[in-house]
Specification:
The complex is a heterotrimer. Chain B contains eleven helices and ten strands. Chain B is an alpha/beta fold. In chain C, 71% of the residues lie in helices and 2% in strands. Chain C has twelve helices and two strands. In chain C, a hairpin with a 5-residue loop joins strand 1 and strand 2. The chains are: A mainly alpha, B alpha/beta, C mainly alpha.
Chain lengths: 360, 267, 290
C-alpha cells in the first residue's frame, strides 16, 4: 500500500524532486515564492491567536518531519516519539536550571542527547521488525518518562520545571512575533535537511531497506548502520523540537509528554501521507488545528456551555474517529487526496503510466 | 461427460500493473485428469490460483474473462467460497498446517455440519489411499518429510469432498519413485471417487503419463492443446520440455530457446 | 506472605487481560492495543447494568458480559475486518485509535469520576484472612479463581474443541485455512468475542474490588508485557509471563522504589526483547535477523 519511491513514478517523492520540464519548474518556484511571501506577511496581519496556532503548527512539523524520515522513509516503526521530545525538553530544563546554560549550549546538547537516545531506541531495530519494534519503542518511551519523573521528584519540582525564555544579547525572546519566525525558520531548516538527506546515499539506502530489506542487504547495503543512522538523525531533530517546545512554553513536566502525544505524531504522518515530506507538514497542520476546529464546532451547537467540561473527552473521541476514518478510507492520507485532485484538474500530457504493457 | 469447469479468455493482473496471464482458455470435463504444462513464469500457477480464489492476498485479480464452474461464475470469489462449492487447491508451498498433528490437519477442514461418523469415514478413506499417514497420526505437520507432507496435503483436500481437485506442482522436491506412487494414487482418486483433477506440472513426463488431456502455457498464453498422447508425441513439447530433438539427440536449453524465439511453431 | 498474595492477585489480573492479547495475536497476527479500553468498557457496562438490575448481581454481571462480548464482535465486524491485509503500522494504529475513541466515548457517557459498580448491587469488598497473616479481598480472590478457570477452559477449548482446532489452523496459515473451507471471518469474530469477554470479566472484577476510574485502561497496557514475555501466541507462556512481571513489579515496589511500579513491566519487556524477542514459549517467527 505504501509504495517505494521509484524514479519512474511521478507521484513518488523522488519524482516530485525531479522537475519534469521547465514549465513545471517555473510553476513550482512561483508557488514556493508565493507561499514564502504569505508566511512572512502573515504575522503582520494575523491575530495573536492565529500567530500562536501557526507557531504550534511549525513546531509540530519539525517532529512530524523527523518521524516521517524514520517511519515513512526508513521504514522503522516508532511509537515512542514523545519520549524523544521529552528528552530534548528535559535537557533544556536541567541545563538551564542547574547551570544557567544559555540556549546556544542547550540546543546542541539537546540534539546530542537526542542522538544518543536515538541510538538506544535504534538498537532493537537491528533485531526486531514491525510490531515488536513498535513495542520496544513503547517500552523505551516509558523508561524515559519514568526517568524524567524521577528527576522531578528528586529535585522537588512538584509541578514541573520552570524555564526562562532564551536571551539574545541580553534581550529576552518571548513575544509571539519572535517565536513565529524562530519556529518558522526551524521548520524550514528541518525541511531542507530532510530533502537533502533523502537525496543522498543515506536516503536511497533507507528506501531500499524499507521496501525489501533482504534485497538491500544482498546488494551490500549495511543495514545496521543505516537503520541506526535513521534513528539517530530522527531523534536528534526531535529532541531539538522538544527543546524549542520547552522554551516556547517556559515549562517542562512529564505529563506534557503523554503517550497520546506519541500517537498524535504517528497519526500526523499517516493522515498526511506516508513517504511524503509535504505530507508530514500537512499532517502536522491537520492534527494541530484539529482540537481547535472541534472546539469551534461545539461552540456552534445550541447548548454550548454544557459541553465545555466534556471538551477534552470530545477531542479524544473525535481524534480517534478521524484517525480510523483515514485508515479505512484514505490510507494514502491528505497527500493522496491532493494528488487525486491534481490528477482531475491537471491537463498535463505527461501522465504516469503504471500499466506499461506486458513485461518481456 | 459434462463440462465441469470452463476458463474463458482470462487475464490476470498483479498489483494493477503486471499481467501474468494474458489470454487463457480451456475447459475440463467431469472425471477428466487435465494437466497444464509450461516452464517457470508461464502463468500456470496463476491460472490455478485464479480458479480457486487464491489471488487476493497477492493483490492480483482476474481483470477480464470468466471462469465458470458447474454453470456458475466463480472468478474473483474469496477462497472459502470456492472451497464450499467444491474446488480445493493443493498449493505449491505451505500446504499443511505446521504446528498441529496429522489427525488435526485432516479434521480441521471438515465442515461443522458433518456428523462424527461421516468425519471418521472420511479420515479412514484418506488412510486407505495413503497408509503411511495412518502411522503418522500424532506427528505434527511441520516434521513430515516432503513426500509425507504431499500425502497429507492431498489427504486434507480429499477430506473436503471436492468435485474438482487442483494440484500445483506435485513433483517439487519428490523422488521419482515417490512421485510415481502419488500420481498413481491420483488416478485411483479419480476412478474410485469420481473427482476431476487439474494438475499443474513442470515434470511433463510424469504428468502426461496419467493425464487425459493437456494444455501447454507459455508467457500467459495457451500455445498447444491436445490429448495426452498427442502432446507426448508433439515435437514442440519434446523439444522444449523433454530436450529431445527429432534425431534423438539431447539439446540444451539455450538451443531450444533460440529456436523458439526464431521459429514458428506447429502443433 | 502478603507479598505472595499480592503477586498472585496482580498476576491474575495481568493474565486475564493478556489472554485477550494472545488469542487475537495467535489467530490473526494482530496486536490489539485497545484491549485495555475494551476491558474498561466491560467495567463501565457493569455500572449501567448494575443500576438496571438493582440488587441482582448475577443478572447484572451476565448482562454486562453479554454486552461487552457483542461490542467485541462489533469492533471486528465494523473495523478490524476492513484492516486485514493492511500494513503493520496501519493495523497497530487502528487499534490504538480505536482505544482512544473508546476512551473518549466512555468519559463522555459515564464521566471521569470515580464510580463504584458494587454499590447498587449490594456487593461489598470484604477482606478474607489467610494463613501467615495475609489478607485478600473477596473480589481479588474471585479474580484468581476466575483466571484459573478461564485459562483451563481456553486450554481445553483450543486443544479439543472443533472451533478451537479451526482457530489454531487459521492462526498457522490463514490462506490455507480459507482454501480448506474455514470461514476466516467467523473465526476472527469468535476470537474477538472471546478476547473481549475475558478482558471485560477482568475489568468488572477489578472495578468491583477497587472502584472504577477512567484510568483503568492503563492496566491494559501494563499487562501487555506479560503476554510478550511469555510469547504472544502462547497461553501457557502468558500465564507464566504474568507471574514474572507481577513478581518483578511487586518486589521492586517493596524493595526498591514505589515509583517503579508503572515502568517495571516495560523494563522486563525490554530485557526480554533483547534476549529472546519471541518470548519464553512463543513460536519463533520472522523476527530473526535478515
Amino acid at each position: 500500500m505504501y509504495d517505494a519511491p521509484s524514479p519512474a513514478n511521478r507521484y513518488s517523492s523522488a519524482g516530485m524532486l525531479q522537475a519534469s520540464g521547465r514549465s513545471d519548474q517555473r510553476r513550482r518556484s512561483l508557488s514556493a515564492a508565493l507561499l514564502a511571501l504569505g508566511l512572512i506577511i502573515f504575522p503582520f496581519v494575523g491575530s495573536p491567536f492565529a500567530l500562536d496556532l501557526a507557531s504550534q503548527v511549525f513546531l509540530a512539523s519539525i517532529g512530524s518531519l523527523s518521524l516521517m524520515l524514520l517511519t515513512g522513509f526508513a521504514g522503522q516503526i516508532s511509537i515512542g516519539h514523545a519520549g524523544l521530545i521529552a528528552a530534548g525538553a528535559y535537557v533544556v530544563g536541567i541545563m538551564s536550571r542547574e547551570w544557567q546554560a544559555p540556549f546556544w549550549l542547550t540546543l546542541p546538547s539537546a540534539a546530542i542527547a537526542g542522538a544518543l537516545l536515538g541510538a538506544a531506541f535504534g538498537v532493537p531495530s537491528l533485531r526486531l521488525r514491525g510490531l515488536y519494534l513498535a513495542v520496544s519503542t513503547l517500552a523505551l518511551y516509558f523508561i524515559v518518562i519514568y526517568a524524567g519523573g524521577e528527576y522531578e521528584a528528586w529535585r522537588g519540582y512538584a509541578t514541573g520545571i520552570m524555564i526562562d525564555s532564551p536571551k539574545v544579547a541580553g534581550m529576552e525572546i518571548s513575544s509571539g512575533f519572535a517565536w513565529y519566525f524562530i519556529l518558522l525558520a526551524a521548520a524550514v531548516m528541518t525541511l531542507v535537511l530532510c530533502i537533502n538527506l533523502l537525496r543522498s546515499r543515506t536516503g536511497r539506502a533507507w528506501g531500499a531497506i524499507r521496501t525489501r530489506e533482504t534485497v538491500a542487504e544482498a546488494l551490500g547495503i549495511n543495514i545496521a548502520k543505516f537503520k541506526l543512522w535513521a534513528f539517530v538523525i530522527s531523534s536528534a531533530i526531535t529532541a531539538v523540537a522538544g527543546a524549542l517546545f520547552a522554551y516556547d512554553r517556559n515549562f517542562v513536566s512529564a505529563e506534557a509528554f503523554s503517550l497520546y502525544l506519541s500517537i498524535q505524531y504517528v497519526a500526523m504522518i499517516i493522515i498526511g501521507g506516508m513517504g511524503s515530506l509535504p505530507g508530514a507538514i500537512l499532517g502536522a497542520t491537520f492534527v494541530t488545528l484539529f482540537p481547535y476546529a472541534i472546539e469551534s464546532a461545539i461552540g456552534m451547537l445550541p447548548d454550548a456551555d454544557r459541553y465545555v467540561n466534556a471538551l477534552y473527552a470530545m477531542n479524544y473521541a473525535a481524534f480517534g474517529l478521524v484517525t480510523i476514518a483515514f485508515l479505512l478510507f484514505e490510507p494514502r492520507g491528505l497527500i493522496g487526496i491532493w494528488r487525486r485532485l491534481q490528477g482531475h484538474i491537471s491537463l498535463r500530457r505527461r501522465k504516469a503510466k503504471p500499466l506499461s504493457g506486458p513485461p518481456q | 461427460m459434462s463440462t465441469l469447469l470452463t476458463v474463458d479468455r482470462i487475464q490476470v493482473v498483479y498489483q494493477r500493473s503486471i499481467i501474468a496471464v494474458h489470454d487463457v482458455s480451456f475447459s475440463v470435463k467431469s472425471g477428466q485428469i487435465v494437466v497444464l504444462l509450461g516452464t517457470n513464469g508461464a502463468g500456470k500457477t496463476t491460472t490455478l490460483r485464479a480458479i480457486s480464489g487464491f489471488l487476493g492476498l497477492d493483490d492480483a485479480r482476474v481483470s477480464s474473462g470468466t471462469i465458470t464452474f458447474n454453470g456458475a461464475r466463480i472468478d474473483n470469489l474469496p477462497p472459502y467460497e470456492t472451497a464450499r462449492r467444491g474446488i480445493i487447491l493443493v498449493p505449491e508451498r505451505d500446504k499443511v498446517f505446521p504446528n498441529i498433528t496429522v489427525t488435526e490437519n485432516l479434521m480441521a477442514p471438515v465442515a461443522h455440519n458433518v456428523s462424527r461418523s461421516e468425519r471418521t469415514r472420511r479420515e479412514d478413506l484418506v488412510y486407505s489411499f495413503f497408509p503411511r499417514l495412518a502411522e503418522l497420526r500424532k506427528r505434527t505437520g511441520g516434521l513430515l518429510s516432503g513426500g509425507e507432507r504431499q500425502m497429507l496435503a492431498l489427504g486434507c483436500a480429499l477430506v473436503c469432498h471436492p468435485q474438482l481437485l487442483l494440484v500445483d506442482e506435485l513433483s517439487l522436491g519428490l523422488a521419482p519413485i515417490v512421485l510415481e506412487g502419488l500420481m498413481g494414487q491420483l488416478v485411483k482418486v479419480r476412478s474410485e471417487l469420481g473427482i476431476t483433477i487439474v494438475l499443474v506440472e513442470q515434470n511433463a513426463v510424469a504428468a502426461l503419463a496419467v493425464a487425459d488431456y493437456g494444455y501447454v502455457l507459455e508467457n500467459g498464453h495457451v500455445v498447444l492443446a491436445g490429448s495426452a498422447e498427442k502432446l507426448r508425441g508433439a515435437g514442440r513439447v519434446q523439444d522444449s520440455y523433454l530436450g529431445k530433438s527429432d534425431s534423438g539427440e539431447r539439446r540444451g536449453y539455450r538451443d531450444i530457446k533460440r529456436n523458439a524465439l526464431q521459429g514458428r511453431f506447429h502443433a | 506472605m502478603q507479598l505472595i498474595v499480592n503477586m498472585l492477585v496482580l498476576s491474575s489480573i495481568y493474565a486475564l487481560i493478556s489472554c485477550g492479547y494472545v488469542l487475537i495475536y495467535r489467530v490473526s497476527r494482530v496486536m490489539n492495543l485497545a484491549q485495555g479500553e475494551l476491558m474498561m468498557l466491560g467495567a463501565y457496562l457493569l455500572l449501567t447494568t448494575a443500576s438496571l438490575f438493582h440488587g441482582n448481581p448475577e443478572m447484572a454481571i451476565i448482562a454486562a458480559v453479554v454486552l461487552s462480548t457483542t461490542c467485541g464482535v462489533l469492533v471486528y465486524v465494523l473495523l478490524m475486518r476492513k484492516m486485514t491485509g493492511e500494513s503493520v503500522l496501519a493495523a497497530v494504529l487502528a487499534t490504538i485509535a480505536l482505544g482512544i475513541l473508546l476512551r473518549g466515548l466512555m468519559v463522555l457517557i459515564w464521566s471521569a469520576q470515580q464510580q463504584y459498580p458494587g454499590q447498587p448491587l449490594g456487593l461489598n469488598s470484604t477482606a478474607i484472612a489467610l494463613p501467615g497473616g495475609a489478607r485478600i479481598s473477596t473480589f481479588a480472590a474471585a479474580l484468581v479463581i476466575v483466571n484459573a478457570l478461564t485459562y483451563a477452559a481456553l486450554f481445553g477449548f483450543l486443544r479439543f474443541g472443533r472451533w478451537g482446532l479451526r482457530m489454531r489452523a487459521a492462526g498457522q496459515n490463514p490462506l490455507l485455512a480459507a482454501q480448506r473451507g474455514i470461514n476466516l471471518h467467523a473465526i476472527y469474530a469468535l476470537t474477538w468475542a472471546l478476547s473481549t469477554m475475558t478482558g471485560a470479566m477482568a475489568g468488572m472484577l477489578i472495578a468491583l474490588d477497587s472502584g472504577l476510574t477512567s484510568n483503568l485502561a492503563v492496566l491494559g497496557l501494563k499487562a501487555f508485557p506479560a503476554a510478550l514475555v511469555g510469547g504472544l501466541d502462547s497461553l501457557l507462556g502468558t500465564l507464566i509471563g504474568s507471574l514474572i512481571v507481577a513478581a518483578a513489579e511487586i518486589l521492586s515496589i517493596q524493595y526498591v522504589d514505589p515509583l517503579l511500579s508503572d515502568v517495571m513491566p516495560f523494563l522486563v519487556l525490554l530485557a526480554m526483547l533483547i534476549v529472546r524477542p519471541w518470548g519464553l514459549f512463543g513460536t519463533r517467527e520472522e523476527l530473526d535477523r535478515v
